[in-house]
Each structure stands twice: as structure tokens, then as C-alpha cells.
Amino acid sequence: MDDEMTARDGPMVEFEHVSMVYPEGTEALDDVTVAIDEGEFVFIVGPTGEGKSTLIKLIYRELLPTMGRVLVAGGDVAALPLRKVPYLRRRIGVVFQDFRLLPHQTVFQNVAFALRVVGEGGRKIRRRVPELLEQVGLAQRPDALPSQLSGGEQQRVSIARALAHEPPIFLADEPTGNLDPDTSWEIMQLIARVIAERGTTVIVATHDKLMVDAMHTRVIELSNGRVVRDAPEAGY
Amino acid sequence: MIRLFRAIEFFLVEATVNIRRHGLMSLAAIAIVAFVFLLVGLFGLMLANLRSATEYALSEVTFFAYLDPRASLDDAHVLRMDILDLEGVKSAKVITKEEAFERIAKRLWGSRDLGNIPNRLGHSVRVTAIDPRDTLRLADRISGMAQVKNVVDARQSVSKLLEWARLVDVGVVVIGLLLALAVVGIIHSTIRLTLFARRREISIMQMVGATSTYVAGPFLLEGAFHGTVGSGIAAGLLFLGYDYLLGRAQYWTWLPLVREQQIIWGFWGMIIAGFVLGVLGSLFSVRRFLHRPVVV
């Protein structure tokens, strides 16, 4: 799947009649069929609890669909052996509303963690982490702890970590949910600039109307787990 | 190879950080493992001594083949040679009827001289088996030999001793297994608590593409550390304690204790068992944890 992600035809992410019912019976997605091409910037919108996060989790194989297929770079993620899942995830950067940083580790260590856990050496880490921090505008604060940073800065650290493996796919689940409007805008600009300009496929799940309207890009709207709108260059 | 070194370095660093960060939990785990191994060791030492005493008692088991009173001393020596030819015989000694008579006289009347009482005893051969468990088989075999009138084989005592030896063996296995399970359980619970405390970190590792080896490695090391240090402390204490006891017991002839040299492998075995059970305990916890979905 790694090689396929770099040189291939067809959608980068594809949902084919995907339904997802949680074990306790909650129906999160109902017959969703969408295709997202390489380099596209897509918003998944809809109120809370309409299946946006589920859709994101299905892409990086946190969940498996109850029915249908989720294809990443043409490969069915459900068919991927367990031992290959980590390699899929190295090709997908993910950020969340709550940043998910390690509280006892510095900015540098948080970003380096993504490289250390896949066996990268110290030399590469010392070279790569400052580059990433430079890209997200945190080059001056490598020794700060997450608790010493603002929400926006913490999200920048989380973006830097997500970019550590130069992923061709970037997923964001409510990345501005904990941020004020100005900071949200900065973060979205950062995502657009740093990630989208490199040809990365970006999928952002959000219910931030102002953001979606301002970005004016493709919008997929979910309601009751179904796709009710799929419009290019649209607003919320 | 470089990747392997990096992985080992990562495991060591993470395990050290984790042990330091959860110092109290680690201390508790080590203390409990040490306590259980102390029990294992005490039990093992008791069994080793019991076993040694049983073996000693069994090695002392002899039986007598009595010849017909009309048989000559030469017949007794011929019988002795025939017995020595049998497989499994350690020793065979001729006891003359005169020696036997003197012994009886001494035992019954406290004197070797019985005056005019005629000696109607026959010669006999005292037999010891190489393996005490062969005693009864040899006794049956010898009782059918020429000139042998009867064989007195202390059948009841031998059976009881053999039964006791079997019981000791079964006890070693059963209680050893139970205590091993207890150690696995303790380490399993401790690592599970650690895993729970670090679930956020683990989920981040899985999210950024760490393989199961990288996620599990530090926890396996941690389990190995708890197991080895705990069992090492127990082995050390037991060794010193037993050494002290041996020093005190050297004049107690009624208590022939097993020397440390004979059971030194037991102390090393405890430490190795601590390592293995520690790894096993954490492996069970980590395996269950790895198969859960990544949820922070």
C-alpha cells in the first residue's frame, strides 16, 4: 500500500456503500459512498453525532466497517493484516480536537516521539524535528511543555507530529473545536499552506461553519449517517 | 542490525522512564513478587531437605535372605555371589549364624554369652539395592533361589517410604505450579495497571504507526525487571538465611541438612523463573491491551 500511495491512479480515499453500526447498536454511517482524489481538500460537515468522526476513524483503521469497503490508495483497509496496520498509519497524519500530546514531554519530545516509535535514529530526529517545528511556527519553543502552550500552539505541535512521516493523507477531527475563531483560522491556514500545498489529501471533519465558509472548498455533509450533500467549492 | 539496536535502546529508555514514573507501583510489584518467591523458596528448601531425608532413609533400606539352618557357610558365600550377579544389587554381606546369635543374645539379654542355649539359626545374607525402589523386586527374586529359606524385606516400611517420596515429588510440582501462577497473576495485574495509566501514550504510539513490538517491548522489559529483581531479592535472602541456618546446624547430627552447593541451582532457578514469569505476566496484559481499539 505504501508504494501505491505515491504513484497511482484513482481516488486516494474511497468509501463504497459503507455502513457502520457500533456494537451497542448505534448506527453511525448508513450506505456512504464517496471518493476523494489525491491532493483534494475536503470538509466533512454536519452536527455532532452524525458520523464525521466515525468516517475519519474508518480511514486510519481505528474501526472496521460493518458493511461496504473503505479503500485507501486503492487498497481495502479491512483486508490489511494486523501487522501491516502500523505501516498504513505512518502514511496517514491525524490530528484531534484535544491535541493528544504527552503532557510530561516537551514540544521537541512530542514530535520526536512519532519518529522514535518507528525506529528512526537520533541523527534523523535531530534534523527532522526542528524542520517540522519551523514549518508550524514553533521553532523557538522546542523545550516548552504542552501545559506552557496555548491551545493553538498545542494544535501546531500535534500537526508537526502528524507530518513527521510526510504522510500523503492528512486527517483532522474537529481540529479547531477547542480554539477561538482567530486561532482556528490560523490553524486552518497552516493546514492549507503546509499540507495542501504539498499535494497531500486533506480531510477535515468539523462543524465550524465560519471556517468552512471561509475556505470555500469541497464539502461533504452527513446527516443521520448518510451523505446528504457533496458539493465542490461550497460553504457550510 | 542498527534498527534492532535502536529498538532495544527505545525499550530500555521507555522501560526505565516508566519504572521511575510509576516508582511506587514498581516497588509494590517487586515486593509482592519477592514475598511469593520467598514462600516458593522456603517451601522448596523444606522439600529439598525432606526429599534428601527420604532418599537417605531409602538408601538405608536393606533386607535379609535367610538360609536353611542346615546350609553351610560356603553355601552362604555362594548365595552371596549369586545375589551380587543380580542386576540392581548394591551390596551383599554374609552374616554368619554365630554373629546373628550374638546380636540376638545381646539385644535380648544384654550378653553375648548364652551358655548352653543351642544356636538353631542359619546363616543369612544382608542385601542393599542400588535403587531402593528395586528392593521388593529383588527380595521376591532372591526368595526363589536355592538354599534360601525365607526373605525378610521390611515390605511395609519400604512401601510407606516410597509412597512418601512420591507424595513429596507431587507436592513439589503442584505447589510449584500454584506459586508460579500467583507470580504470573501479580505481574499481570501490575502491568495492566501500568498499561491503564499509559493508555494515552500507547494510543498515540499506535496512531503514529508504532508496531506491536515497539508498543509491547518496554512493558515486557518492565515485567522482566519486576520478576527478576523480586525473585533475586528472595533468592538472596533465602541463601543468606539458609547459610546462617547451616552454620548453626552443623552440630545438630539429628538434622542432616542439604548443603548449599547441592541446591545452588535452585537459587539460580528462582531468578530465571522470576525473569520468565515476569515476561509472561506482562505478555498476557499487553496482548489483551494491543487487541483493543485505539481509544484515548
TrEMBL record, chain B:
The keyword Membrane applies. It is a multi-pass membrane protein. Pfam families: FtsX, FtsX_ECD. GO terms for biological process: cell division. Keywords: Cell cycle, Cell division, Cell membrane, Membrane, Transmembrane, Transmembrane helix. It is found in: Cell membrane. Residues 174-293 form the ABC3 transporter permease C-terminal domain. Gene3D superfamilies: 3.30.70.3040. The keyword Transmembrane applies. Signal peptide: none annotated. One of its GO terms (cellular component) is plasma membrane. Its main location: membrane. The chain crosses the membrane at residues 27-48, 170-193, 214-242, 262-284. InterPro entries: ABC3_permease_C (IPR003838), FtsX (IPR004513), FtsX_ECD (IPR040690). Residues 65-151 form the FtsX extracellular domain. Belongs to the ABC-4 integral membrane protein family. FtsX subfamily. This is Cell division protein FtsX. It comes from candidate division KD3-62 bacterium DG_56.
